[in-house]
Specification:
323 residues; alpha+beta; OB fold (Dihydrolipoamide Acetyltransferase, E2P); Hypothetical protein af1432; 2 domains; two-stranded antiparallel ribbon; 11 helices; elongated
Amino acid sequence: MKAKKRFVKDLLVGEEVDDLFSVKFKKPPRQYSKGFMFEARVSDRTGQINVKFWGSSNEEEVKKAYELVKMDEVLRVRGLVSEYREVLEIGVSADKGGMLSPVAQTEYRIEDFVGSSSKDIAQMMTALDSFISQVEDPMLKSLLSSFFSNDDFVERFRSAPASISIHANWIGGLLEHTLNVLQICDLYSRIYPGMDRDLLLAGAVLHDIGKVEEYRTTTSIDETVDGMLRGHLTIGAEMVTKACDSIPGFPENLKLKLAHMVLSHHCRPEFGSPKAPMFPEAMAVYLADDADSRIEQYVRAKEEAQTEDLFVYSKRLGSIYLG
C-alpha cells in the first residue's frame, strides 16, 4: 500500500511530483502545436489541481493514455508543477519521463483522498440525539423521528460531508456542522427566550438535510446530478415537506415554517436562497449556519498557513491576521 508523500496544498511551482491523486473529471484529447494533449482534474483530501498530459503526434497513443484515466479512481501522476494564469497545475510530458498510471484499490489509503472528522462520530450522534430528545412538540418530535429512527438515513447522515471544499469537507462533516449549528441555536434560545425553542432546534437539525442527496463520496467528494440541478436547499425542503405530509394532522403552517427555514438558511439569492429569513427562528438558523462555516474557514486558514508573515490572503475570506 502506497501512502501519499505530497498533498495538493503543499505543492510548489517547479517541483517534480510523483504521487497519487483521485480523478474528478477529464476532458477529451485535442490537438496542440506539437501533437495531442488532454486535461484532467485530480484531488486529494487537501484540494484539487489540474493535470495536463502533453503527448506526441500519435493520436492513438494519446487516446490510450486518456482511457487509463477513469473517474473516481486513483492515478499515479509523475510530472512537473507549474503555474498557468496564477493557478497551479501539473504538466505530464511523456517525452520527459512523465506518467499517468492507474492504481489498484489495494494500493492506496482512502483517508489520503477523503478525510474524516477529527471528532468521534458516535459521540456526536449521541449529542445530536440528545438535542432531538429535548423537542417537546409532538408533531416536531414525530417529524424528527421519521428521519432519525431510520437506520439507513442515519448511516447516510452521519457519514456525509458538509461540502466539497469550503468547510467540513470530510466524512462526518455534515453531522459535525449540524451539531455546531444546534449548539449555537441552543445558545440563541437562552439569550432570546421569546423564540420557539422546539421550532428552532428542529430547523437546526433539518437545515442541511438535503446534503445526504446532494453529495456522494468515493475517492473524492462530488455533487450528484440532483445536487447539481437542484441543490441541497431545494432537495431538503422537499424532503421535509414530504415527511410532514406523511404525518397525520401535521399543521400546514408549521410545515411552511420548516420549509422556509431550510430554503432561507443561505439568506440571499446569490447563495441559493429564494427567500431571506422572515421570522426569528429562521434568522437564527441562518446566522448559526453562516457563523459555523465562516469561523471554521478562518481557523483552518490560520492552521494551514505556511508563512512567517503576519497576514495570509484567502480568495474567499480576504486578509487573515496570524499574529
